[in-house]
Amino acid sequence: MPIITLLTDFGNQDGYVAAMKGVILSRAPDVTLVDITHAIAPQAVLQAAYVLAQAAPFFPTGAIHVAVVDPGVGSARRPLAIQTSTAIFVGPDNGLFTDVLDSGAVTACVHLDRPRFWRDNPSSTFHGRDIFAPVAAHLAQQVSLNILGTPINDPVRLLLPKPQRQPDGTLTGAIIHVDHFGNLISNIPAAWLSVARWQVHIGPATIDGIQPSFAAAPVGALLAYRGSAGTLEVAVRNGSAAQALGAEVGQTLAAEPHSH
């Protein structure tokens, strides 16, 4: 029984997500549909790429991931499907699948340019319903990528910020995601935090030490910790670090080693 996941910036107050589900179930009634989220900020491709990269690896092999955050809908941007060794990804060619493309696991990538696999008379503003949903249903019924589109080797990639190790041992990076709790997720790998003691600098704040858990800090205090995604994170216990610091995606931070 194939699994199809959905990730969009559509919200839940309109009928857009339900329309996509209806198209899929009309063509592949036995699939299991899973919502990753529909609360991506409008047009926030970088946020969508991050959330997809965090969720997709935990699904069973063979899952089909439909991700639609698509500010270029109706333009010359291509509809895309990507096969990896464990999954298939379907959505716009706008960098949303950068982490997938950089994973080294891609086995095929196609431009979805064969309208016979879409809904008739597709809307220029709703490719989620009229292209991506029917293509996902075909994939769930074992239609191969090379039938659904033309192979390409130049999918769009986002220029993602990279963490750096400075000569003095300081680690520098950027906030790449702010989660629902206001936690600030950086791109500095937790594995780089090898020495015993660090000071984390972000905006006007300096945080002493890396805590093992939220509970290790007093209520309302800023803390730095190794997050579940495997990178350095900053939080406020029982509060929002984003609100406390006025921080957002792209803000820089640094971790400075201390010997005592």
Q: State mean pLDDT (0 to 100 scale).
A: 94
Strand-pairing-aware structural class: alpha+beta
In percent, how helical is the residue content? 10-25%
How many DSSP helices?
6
CATH architecture heading of the largest domain: 3-Layer(aba) Sandwich
| Global outline | elongated
Report the CATH superfamily of the largest domain: S-adenosyl-l-methionine hydroxide adenosyltransferase, N-terminal
Low-confidence stretches: none
Under CATH at level 1, the class of the largest domain stands as Alpha Beta
| Gap from first CA to last CA | 56 Å
Strand tally: 15
Q: How many separate domains make up the residues? A: 2
- DSSP strand content: 25-35%
Please write the string of helix (H) and strand (E) elements: EHEHEEEHEHHEEEEEEEEHE
CATH topology of the largest domain: Rossmann fold
Main beta sheet: strand number and arrangement? Answer: 8 strands, antiparallel
How large is the radius of gyration? 21 Å
In short:
With 260 residues, the protein is of the alpha+beta class. It has helices at residues 16-27, 45-55, 98-101, 127-140, 145-148, 241-245; strands at residues 3-8, 32-37, 63-68, 79-84, 87-92, 106-111, 150-151, 164-165, 171-178, 184-189, 197-202, 205-208, 222-226, 231-236, 252-258. The protein folds into two domains: 3-151, Rossmann fold, CATH 3.40.50.10790; 164-258, Elongation Factor Tu (Ef-tu), domain 3, CATH 2.40.30.90.
